[in-house]
Amino acid sequence: MQKRKIINPWQWNEEIGFVQANDLTGVKRIVYCAGQVSVDDEGNPLYPGNMEAQIKQALNNLETVLRHAGLELSDVVRLNYYTTDIAAFRKAEPMLSERLKKAGCRPVSTLLGVAALYHPDVVVEIEATAVQLD
After folding, report:
1. Beta-carbon neighbour count of residue 97 at 10 Å?
2. What's the CA dihedral at 84, 89, 90, 92 to 10 degrees?
């Protein structure tokens, strides 16, 4: 039997769409996605320094990867965010939260500030783990 249970011991989590844990049973497969950044189909960086636009494009790229794996954003159970600018990321969080909510995506997540990413114009990278329940 498949089951996904959200675990949030504190109410503040729900108010901002944050999840402390996903308890999964009946997992058929797990897909680990590489970090996605804001690049075009040729791997060229897009939207230099623009956090919100880069988050949107990185999510678009993540959704493309997931579709090719037969999954959707709602199947994502973990997102790790790496950014060179925590303050800009936090400013863009409402847009990110709304997009995830609209997709039915309730992942656990970690936000990490880093000194640099693979290209100087890239300010955010999003890494995902998705599951297909049996």
Report:
1. 14
2. 170
CATH number of 30's domain = 3.30.1330.40
Domain limits at 30?
3-133
Question: What is the residue-wise DSSP string for 90-128?
Answer: HHHHHHHHHHHHHHT---EEEEEE-S--SSTT--EEEEE
108 forms beta bridges with 19, 78
Are 131 and 27 spatial neighbours (Cβ–Cβ below 8 Å)? Answer: yes
Q: How many domains does the chain have?
A: 1
- The pLDDT tens digits along the chain (134 residues) read 558 787 878 877 677 677 778 777 778 899 999 999 999 999 999 999 999 999 999 999 999 999 999 999 999 999 999 999 999 999 999 999 999 999 999 999 999 999 999 999 999 999 999 999 87
pTM of the model: 0.89
